[in-house]
Task: structure prediction
Amino acid sequence: MGLASGSARMFVALLLVVGASVLFWASRDYAVIAPDLDGQIRGLSYSPSHLYTGADQAEASPERINVDMAQLEDYTGRIRTYTVQGGMAEVPAVARHHGITVSLGLWIGTDAAANEKEIADGIKVIRANRRVIDRVFVGNESVLRGDQKPAELAKYLDRVRKALPSRIKVGTAEPWHVWLEYPELAKHVDFMGIHLLPYWEGIPVKYALQFCIDRVTQLNQRFPDKPMVIGEVGWPSDGRTRQGANASLADEAYFVRSFIAYAAEHGYDYYVMEAYDQPLKAGPEGAVGAFWGLLNAEGQPKFNFTGMLRSFPEWRTYATIAAVLTLLLGLMILGSMPRVRSTGYVVMGGLVAVVMTGILMLIDASALEYLEPSDIVFYSALVPLILLAGTIILTEGAELALCLWRMERRFVLAATLEKSPRVSIHVPCYNEPPEMVKATLDALTRLDYDNFEVIVLDNNTHDAAVWRPVEAHCATLGPRFRFFHIDDVQGFKAGALNEALARTDVAAEFIAVIDSDYQVAPNWLRVALPFFAKKEIAVVQAPQDYRDQGGSLFKAMCYEEYRGFFHIGMVERNEADAIIQHGTMTIVRRAALEEVGGWSEWCITEDTELGLKLFERGYSAAYIPISLGRGVMPDTLGAFMVQRYRWVYGAMQIMKRHARAVFLGRAELTNAQRYQFMAGWLPWISDGPALIVTVFALLWTVLMTVAPKMFDVPMAALSACALALFAAKTLKTLLLYPPKVRSGFRGAVMASVAGLALTHTVGKAMLLGLFTSRYPFMRTPKCEDAAPLKQVLRVAWQEAMLFTACMSALAATIISRRGVGDPAILLWSIMLCVQALPYAATLVTASFSALANTAPAPQATPLPAPLPERQAA
Result:
């Protein structure tokens, strides 16, 4: 009954989110009413279609031009060109056979020699085709681009006017504001060619026609005696939104139809830009440059000139794909999850729908119609990042749903043992403060358990003044405390633990390990050992905990950051019998340890690796979610970073060594165990690519600042993806910490800042760990003095530099783009801020780390009493 009820809740939740997804896509489609066109267009700007469809020809052939003219004569009786080079000199002769008049364009750029050739060739073409050419455009936006100053362009205009008969009118074409800025240019033209492109001005399409009307009126008032010719007017059918202007097929159709109808009624002379889509313009103008044609690059009409338009006619296709993918992925994810309450199913199903919708919106915004090789490379690199981000959002959401709304819990029964088995407690030391180690040993003397031994193994400490006091102290504690000092121990900490294992009492059934700073509770063994009642339990793990969180704000932040793992992550992993074994407060069944070959000396996180090896052999583990011992945290930011670096690097070692078992199923791991290990690695794995993306974002921002015509702001959907990933991680912390860690909102924020401060460190460790295998073991220093600010900042110099670079790049972007009215610029700026947050957090944490510890020495918090005999692990 319970299972059926859970399935029903799951299906209802999925139906709700699938319905919401369909409604979302349907909401993007609405009717667009525009005037019908029943006549020809006054004029079209023309570049041959074959130049932009991937053909190998470098020049326009007469055959291609003839095909285009045969098609365009149904749409217009006049075309405008831009140059007579590249085969375009043939256009007038071919157009004459189709009854099309040509307004010839002469390209004027920065190369004086090329300009001279253009004019000379153009005059020859005009003289050979006088009957078909009505006007000449000498230069196109030459002043706007800065290729020519007005006075220089005027000289070209005067020369061409003088060389041609008065019947052929000569002018130039510039955006409307250039004519107002340089009115003297009007004295050298027979007509003023003005460009009215409201999209580039960020004008919403519903105001675009009025914008054009206002500009024509303004120029007619300023130049009442000069004929006006609208040299370019149009709207793109695809590309990014520019402030309030949306590049879409519906908006292009609405604007073009509205403008042509108005122009016919009011006698405007104009050329719609343009006849054919030109994909090669996507380079200098961004993706939107490819989509200004009334026909696509293959000559197919893009919209109807009569009838009602739809804003998003493809919505059914997208809605169907979104519904199917959401349903299938939702069934796979929700069906494999443990049972949760209805809220959990709705939240998780909603996340699936959001991820699927986001991916489809990214595809919709990617302008995939005219892909270039560089685009293929870009999207090939982008796809894995998008899939990684989506996967992390879903795994973070699953942990959130299971933590808050799980209905079933795993119970590991603790039973009273018939006898007190012998336990060998191992305390590995390397260059540790003697007084700290002696306090650890003193706590072990207070254990309320009678059958144990303690092996203190000091390895590779060269200064006898450090280890001799510990040796002497062990001698005073009785025969159950045995001290060994060994030099030249290989294999990191695992080597020391294997040395201790070799010296363990043969009667010992269990091996317990604590770090040299841990002071255990008297009832530690009494609480933990009963969980070994079942033979398949090979590990009993208590959480790492700390006693010095009151020493400084820095340590309080570290403490909150640690607690999330032990009160959220480990608790949830225990539900799947997939805890992370860590090298303190752990007890291992000796027979199982020896069965898997002891501690692995190739790995710098031998504890976690041992736990995974035991799971692969079919053993289980139990986690006790209460504190049974407390140590000390790193005293400095540098030590905090070193510790996390070691954990991440070791995780990458483990992932590579155990890839076949975890990813390919070559071991006795359950699917739940495999999932937990993969999901646990993912956040760290994501920080590696995030570091690369940060560097790329900085470089790209610099390039689009210094060369804005060549490098455009990345599409808004890409920035939105990065922001969604950041939001998912942050929200999970803020939502889970108060109820599960009981730290309140303040503690959640402190944990978030401390975690962000490690982002750069984690990213470096992940990348290095992925591509190397034998990085040296890094000891976490204990009981150090607080580092001075100068020293801490030296540790964090990379973070400081990247933070400064992020913020500088942000400022440069905003300044160069003149504000953040463009949604893509706004999102990119926000993303840069988000990418700067980890480095800002590092600087903040560094400052707190540098503060002197003026608080009283922290007192150990009383530890809890033993668990009842039957207790959930």
Confidence is low (pLDDT under 50) at residues 52-57, 852-873.
